[in-house]
Amino acid sequence: MASPQIDVDEIVETLEQIRQRGHSAHTVFRDWVNLMLFALQDRDDPYLEIVDDYRERGDMAHPDGQRSVDLFAKAFGQLQERMAATDADVLGAVYEEYGLSSDAFGQHFTPHTVCETMAKIAGVGDENDTEDRQTVLDPACGSSRMLLVAGRKQPDALFVGQDKDPLCARMTASNCCFLNLDAYVIQGDSLTVEFQRAWQTLYSSLGGSVRELDDEEVEELHEWVTDAFENTVEGDNQPSPAQGTDTGAEERTPRVGMSVPSEQASLGAFEGSD
Ligand SMILES: C[S@@+](CC[C@H](N)C(=O)[O-])C[C@H]1O[C@@H](n2cnc3c(N)ncnc32)[C@H](O)[C@@H]1O
């Protein structure tokens, strides 16, 4: 697939209207991502905490439709529209564009065409490889662009993304949910294998879902990932942590085990990461 030209001007303009009310670009972008992720998880309390922060700063004085909470919702709708139109990592593109105006955040992610090539080299979507369910790992996932490209090639794989940057981990959790992928998203350092928090996204024919894992589940996930890295489960069908948990979501593939090291398509490389 050719690299899509992602025009994010409309979304950036909407977020910019909020920033001009005296917030930093980083605060606006972070709050937008958090609001989306809390809404996707039906987590009212942390969602309303953010809304209250804006309310306390006079947000209700703006006319209906122009309050910051309305503009956040508008930007969410625009994001969905752009994603449907481009089939690309629009959230990451907004981050790249919006981060340019900020000293507090911003970086560039891998261009879509390069992600396509890397997924091909890693054997994602290889039709000859039918033995086990593939696991696609990006240990420095940024906004999850590589995982999304891989997800289009092989939507029934299990995806694992890790990033030490909380904002990137949250963008990845949101994106994996939007793309309706089965994924684990970890916030933590891949080099020291420290996990601070993690989310699971689940495929469903009605659309993806996302939930944050509790401490015990994060610990289980940590063990599973550590085992996978240490190559101790080769040939051993070990289900991923939450495959034994009744999450209420349907599974599009049977509960297959994974011989992770042999089937793992690792996309991430630390070269070029910050
Ligand atoms: C240039 S981005 C690449 C993102 C993505 N893989 C892509 O190609 O678009 C590098 C990412 O690596 C993350 N990173 C750097 N060192 C890391 C580490 N030790 N553990 C986890 N993430 C790390 C950064 O936070 C950043 O989001």
Automatic annotation (TrEMBL):
Range of residues in the leader sequence: none
Enzyme class: transferase
SUPFAM superfamilies in UniProt: S-adenosyl-L-methionine-dependent methyltransferases
Keywords: Methyltransferase, Restriction system, S-adenosyl-L-methionine, Transferase
GO molecular function: DNA binding; N-methyltransferase activity; site-specific DNA-methyltransferase (adenine-specific) activity
InterPro entries, alphabetized: DNA_Adenine_Mtase, DNA_methylase_A-5, SAM-dependent_MTases_sf
Pfam families: N6_Mtase
EC number annotated for this UniProt entry: 2.1.1.72
Domain DNA methylase adenine-specific: residue ranges: 88-192
Organism superkingdom: Archaea
GO terms (BP aspect): DNA restriction-modification system; methylation
Catalytic activity: a 2'-deoxyadenosine in DNA + S-adenosyl-L-methionine = an N(6)-methyl-2'-deoxyadenosine in DNA + S-adenosyl-L-homocysteine + H(+)
Ranges of Polar residues composition bias in the record: 234-246
Positions of the UniProt region annotated as Disordered: 230-274
Protein name according to UniProt: site-specific DNA-methyltransferase (adenine-specific)
Originating species: Haloarcula amylolytica JCM 13557
Native organism taxonomy: Archaea, Methanobacteriati, Methanobacteriota, Stenosarchaea group, Halobacteria
